[in-house]
Amino acid sequence: MSGQTRLTYLLGAPLAKNVVRQWPQMGETVKGADLISAVEGNFETVTLEVGRRLPLGDMVIVEWTTNYGDGKLFRSVTIGELEDGKAVRVTDYWGPPFETPDWRKPMTARLDMPPDGIWPSKDRLGRH
């Protein structure tokens, strides 16, 4: 991929050096393009493809599919917030909540997830 991260490919935009990537399903955040690249480097067998990329001014929404090498497909949505054409904040959604793997804990920090915030807690969900 000529030195680009998978995230750069997904978004169709370069990453700002201080970009922040969030994974709400794990309550996790990664700060900086270098750490994002380090995390991605641990998934050598992953394949992925963009299904749809929707540029919306200073945002881009991407629907994509990935396979971590075991044949199971994950359908994902990524929201990228852009400043001066570079991604500064990215949020990825896929799969059910799960714990952060031990190997990744030194590269990430906990993502603040108040029960009434962007990702409501289970007891705040309703039938609509």
Order of helices and strands: HEEHEEEEE
Instruction: Write down the Rg.
Output: 15 Å
The proportion of strand residues reads 35-45%
Average pLDDT number:
87
Please state how the strands of the largest beta sheet are arranged side by side. Answer: 3-4-5-6-1-2-7
Q: Could you say which overall geometry the principal axes of the C-alpha atoms support? A: globular
The CATH topology label is: Nuclear Transport Factor 2, Chain: A
Q: Oligomerization state of this entry? A: single chain
Structure explained in plain terms:
The chain is mainly beta and 128 residues long. The chain has one domain (6-123): Nuclear Transport Factor 2, Chain: A, CATH 3.10.450.50. The protein is built from two helices and seven strands. The chain has a seven-stranded mixed sheet with strand order 3-4-5-6-1-2-7.
Question: Which characteristics define this entry?
Answer:
128 residues, Nuclear Transport Factor 2, Chain: A, 7-stranded mixed beta sheet, 2 helices, 11% helix, SnoaL-like domain-containing protein, NTF2-like_dom_sf
What does the secondary structure layout of this molecule look like, with pairings?
Blueprint: H1 6-11, E1 15-23, E2 28-31, H2 33-40, E3 47-56, E4 59-67, E5 73-83, E6 86-93, E7 109-110
Parallel strand pairs: 1-6
Antiparallel strand pairs: 1-2, 2-7, 3-4, 4-5, 5-6
Protein name: SnoaL-like domain-containing protein
Region (Disordered): 105-128
